[in-house]
Amino acid sequence: MNWTQVCEKEALPEGAGVAAWLGSRPVAIFNLGHRGLYALDNRCPATGVSLLARGQVCELAGELYVCSPLYKQHFHLTTGECLEDTELNAIPIAVKADAAGVWLAGEGA
């Protein structure tokens, strides 16, 4: 798997989503502190608009979701599955952090 560094870990405020670019692909990265880092394609599957990083992270039935700020669909942070509509899934992206920064799986440039 190819990994691309997208930012320093300090650039990700805890409890918030941040938009980043993985090459020409918009990505939403969520820093949930001790619960870990999560990343999804930033494009809302319903509209194609890059806004999932602006969504509210919540816990439903013990699972972590981000709620799209536009149509309020909930996307699972690990699988990308939409709670309200199985046809509208966000694409999950592997993410990791180390002393050098935050890394996403996939091609940059």
TrEMBL record:
Pfam families: Rieske_2 (PF13806)
Domain Rieske span(s) in chain numbering: 4-104
Keywords linked to the UniProt accession: 2Fe-2S, Iron, Iron-sulfur, Metal-binding, Nitrate assimilation, Oxidoreductase
InterPro entries: NirD (IPR017881), Rieske-like_NirD (IPR012748), Rieske_2Fe-2S (IPR017941), Rieske_2Fe-2S_sf (IPR036922)
SUPFAM superfamilies: ISP domain
PROSITE patterns, sorted: NIRD, RIESKE
Superkingdom, natural source: Bacteria
Name the UniProt record assigns to this protein: Nitrite reductase small subunit NirD
Organism: Shewanella sedimentimangrovi
